[in-house]
C-alpha cells in the first residue's frame, strides 16, 4: 500500500513545531545551494522565523544585488505586459534606488571616518575629510570641556556643603564638651563644701602618753612602767 496523502496544517505542539522548522529550514537551504551549484542558477532564499529571526542564502556575492536584479526584472516585465509603465511602480523603484544610493554613500563615509578604504580617495577628498574630522574633534572637545566644567561646579557645591556640615558638627561637639565640663563642676562643688564643714582636730600635746614609760590599768589609771606590781616605788628609788 502506498502512503496516504499528508494533510499540511500548523503543528500545534510548540516544541515539535520548532524542531520541524529547524530540520526543514536546513534542508531547504541545502536544496537551494545544490540547485545553484548543479544548475548554475542565481538563487536567493529568505526565511523569517515566528520570532522574527532572519535566515537567508544567496548564491551571488550579495543579497542586495539579487534583490536589485529582481526589482529591475519585475519592473521590465510589468512594462512589457501592460504596454506602458506603471507610474506607481516606477516611482517606488526610483525611490528605492535613491535610498539605496544614500545608504551606500553613508556606509562609505562611515568607513572613511573610521580610516578604511582611504586609498581610493584623491587629495582633495582627503583634505576635505581631514577638515571634517578636525571640526568634529573640536566639537567633541568643546562638549567634553563643558561637561567637565559642570562636574567641577557640582563637586565644588558638594565640597561647600560638606564644609558647612563639618562646621556644624564641630560646633555641636564644642557645645556638648562645655556642657559636660559644667556638669562635672557642679558635681564637685558639694564635696568641697563637705570638706570645709568638717574641720580637722588640733592635737593636744598635754594629753600625749608615752607607751614605753606608761601602762594603763584595768580601772583606767595611768601608772609608770617602772612602778612595781605590789606598790608604788618612792621617788628616791626611781
TrEMBL record:
Molecular functions (GO terms): DNA-binding transcription factor activity; protein dimerization activity; RNA polymerase II transcription regulatory region sequence-specific DNA binding
CDD domains: MADS_MEF2_like
Span of domain K-box: 89-179
Coiled-coil region: 119-186
Key words, A-Z: Coiled coil, DNA-binding, Nucleus, Transcription, Transcription regulation
Compartments (UniProt record): Nucleus
Principal cellular location given in the protein's record: nucleus
Annotated ranges, domain MADS-box: 1-61
One Gene Ontology cellular component annotation held by this UniProt entry: nucleus
InterPro entries associated with the record: MADS-box/MEF2_TF, MEF2-like_N, TF_Kbox, TF_MADSbox, TF_MADSbox_sf
Annotated GO biological process: carpel development; positive regulation of transcription by RNA polymerase II
Claim: Protease is one of the keywords in the record: no
The keyword NADP is assigned to this record: no
Protein name: Uncharacterized protein
Organism of derivation: Apium graveolens (Celery)
Amino acid at each position: 500500500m502506498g502512503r496516504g496523502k499528508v494533510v499540511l496544517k500548523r503543528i500545534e505542539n510548540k516544541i515539535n513545531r520548532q524542531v520541524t522548522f529547524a530540520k526543514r529550514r536546513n534542508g531547504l537551504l541545502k536544496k537551494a545551494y545544490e540547485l545553484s551549484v548543479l544548475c548554475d542558477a542565481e538563487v536567493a532564499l529568505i526565511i523569517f522565523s515566528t520570532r522574527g529571526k532572519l535566515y537567508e542564502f544567496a548564491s551571488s556575492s550579495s543579497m542586495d544585488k539579487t534583490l536589485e536584479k529582481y526589482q529591475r526584472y519585475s519592473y521590465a516585465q510589468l512594462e512589457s505586459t501592460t504596454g506602458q509603465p506603471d507610474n506607481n511602480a516606477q516611482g517606488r523603484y526610483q525611490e528605492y534606488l535613491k535610498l539605496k544610493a544614500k545608504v551606500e554613500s553613508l556606509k562609505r563615509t562611515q568607513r572613511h571616518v573610521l580610516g578604511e578604504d582611504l586609498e581610493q580617495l584623491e587629495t582633495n577628498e582627503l583634505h576635505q575629510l581631514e577638515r571634517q574630522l578636525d571640526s568634529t574633534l573640536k566639537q567633541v572637545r568643546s562638549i567634553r570641556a563643558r561637561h567637565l566644567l559642570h562636574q567641577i561646579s557640582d563637586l565644588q557645591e558638594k565640597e561647600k556643603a560638606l564644609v558647612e556640615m563639618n562646621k556644624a558638627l564641630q560646633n555641636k561637639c564644642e557645645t556638648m564638651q562645655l556642657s559636660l565640663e559644667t556638669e562635672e563642676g557642679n558635681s564637685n562643688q558639694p564635696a568641697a563644701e563637705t570638706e570645709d564643714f568638717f574641720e580637722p582636730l588640733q592635737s593636744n600635746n598635754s594629753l600625749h602618753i608615752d607607751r614605753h614609760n606608761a601602762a594603763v590599768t584595768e580601772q583606767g589609771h595611768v601608772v609608770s612602767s617602772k612602778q612595781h606590781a605590789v606598790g608604788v616605788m618612792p621617788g628616791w628609788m626611781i
